[in-house]
Amino acid sequence: QVQLVESGGGLVPAGGSLRLSCAASGRTVSSGAMGWFRQVPGKQRVLVAAIGSGEKTYYVDSVKGRFTISRDNAKNAVYLQMNSLKPEDTAVYYCAAGATLYTYNYWGQGTQVAVSS
């Protein structure tokens, strides 16, 4: 059974930083792809960053240059370093695992990120 557990969310002022962590079990983070999505109430869940085979990465335009996704195979964990946070980054962030950068079938429970202006 695959389980993904996120941590590291919280409330930060604009311009601040947070590092989200995703601990995986039942699956290795080095296989397939791992991604971070975010969702605000009333809107669809959006892929923010992903890392796949050969360390290929994807970032949505709005976070390029500010967010960095990485994984630690030894700890079987994935991280999202978020710098220069903006109020519009406020959302619930979900860790996901899947076969490719754009297809996911396992999800964590989410962690809330709130950025104050």
| Low-confidence parts | none
Order of SSEs, N→C? EEEEEEEEEEE
Calculate Rg over CA atoms.
Answer: 13 Å
Instruction: Kindly name the structural category.
Output: mainly beta
Helix content: under 10%
> How far is the N terminus from the C terminus?
40 Å
Give the number of helices: 0
Explain what the structure shows.
The protein has strands at 3-7, 10-13, 18-25, 33-39, 46-51, 57-59, 67-72, 77-82, 91-98, 106-107, 111-116. The protein starts with a strand and ends with a strand. The model has no long low-confidence stretch (mean pLDDT 96). It contains no helices and eleven strands. A hairpin with a 7-residue loop joins β9 and β10 (106-107). The chain is an all-beta fold and 117 residues long.
